[in-house]
Amino acid sequence: MHLTCSEAYVVTGGRGAVQTLTTSGYEVTPLAPGTVAWFTPGTIHRLVNEDDLRITVLMQNSGLPEAGDAVLTLPPKYLTDPETYAAATVIPADAPVAEQERVARARRDLALDGYRALRDAEGPEALAAFHEAAAALVRPRLADWRERWRRGAEAAAGATGDQLDRLERGDTSHLADAVVRAEQPSAHGKFGMCGRLDVYDVYKGAS
Fold this sequence. Notes:
single chain; alpha+beta; four-stranded antiparallel β-sheet; two-stranded antiparallel ribbon; 6 strands
């Protein structure tokens, strides 16, 4: 579940589904080529690959989802404090790939245990308790998140506002500053929150 970021799936191949849990209840959204599905913060989501599912995942806010904005649905005993949560979820970067895979699968299985309990719970209390625990876990990171947002998403929105102001005045000088950029991944196959990632370091300036 993301606390500040929306997430979108652009389906380019295969077949699958995204299972979601919100205060409105449990839903299953089928995913097929051409589907664009998205959800807002507070949506507990589980992606299911049914037949060679291929998607491009788009997320808000300059990399916040991989900077801790997503909290896994671990059973409550793992959500008591940041240290306990980290011990169950952090994948050691310097460990052999086989050990990284073992940790990734173990935390996935724990998250599924917690997810099923939330999905099967009667009434809103369990989901509300998870929301509160997730918010408490990320509170120590909020200053860093705010700075990342300011330098990325907020700065990009501010630049657009400035450009609109210029165009209203008939000022096109910003168009002379046009640039073209391209990036190659700085890392391939890194273990992320939701699977293996190719990492692009584009957060440094614009979004």
